[in-house]
Amino acid sequence: IHRQLCLLLNAENIFHSMADILLREEDLKFASTMVHTLNTILLTSSELFQLRNQLKDLKTPESRNLFCCLYRSWCHNPVTTVSLCFLTQNYKHAYDLIQKFGDLEVTVDFLTEVDKLVQLIECPIFTYLRLQLLDVKNNPYLIKALYGLLMLLPQSSAFQLLSHRLQCVPNPELMQT
C-alpha cells in the first residue's frame, strides 16, 4: 500500500507524514517495527529511486529537512538509523552510533537487523557506498562503521560477507598516485 501511495502521490510527502505520525506514537515497539518497514521500503523499492537520490545529496533545504524529519522517527530503531546515515553518506555519525551499540542490549532481533543491513549493503542501492571504499583517505569513517558492524555480528554468513567486502578495501599507500 505504501509503495502504491508513493507512486500516486508525492513520495517525499508520504514519508514526511509517516515520520511525523510515528514521532507521536506511544507504542515504541510498534514505532520501531514501522520504522524498520518504512526503511526497507525506502531502500528497496524502485518507486523510491528519486527519493533515495534526494537523500544522498543533502545540498538542498528540502532534502535536509526530509533527512531531519526521517532521522527523528528512524531513531525508534537503531539499525535503521545507521542505514539512513549510510544512505545520506553521514558516515561519521553512523560510526558514532555504532560505537553506542555497545551500550544497548544485544538481542537476537537486533542482530537479525544488523544481518539484514549487511545484506542491503551488498545490494545495488549501496553500490556508491561500496565504491567509496576505494577512497580510503576520504572515507575513514565509512570503513570504521563497517568494521564496527562486523564486530557486532557473531560469526555468521553476514559476518563472512562483510569480512570479505572489507578485505577488498585497498591499502592507502598503494592507492597514492
Automatic annotation (TrEMBL):
One GO CC term on file: endosome membrane
UniProt key word Membrane: yes
Record localization: Endomembrane system
Keyword ATP-binding: no
GO biological process terms, semicolon-separated: phosphatidylinositol biosynthetic process
Keywords, ordered alphabetically: Membrane, Repeat
Segments forming domain Vacuolar protein 14 C-terminal Fig4-binding: 1-169
InterPro entries tied to this protein: Vac14, VAC14_Fig4p-bd
Major location category of this protein: membrane
Family annotation (PANTHER family): PROTEIN VAC14 HOMOLOG, TAX1 BINDING PROTEIN-RELATED
Protein name, per record: VAC14 protein
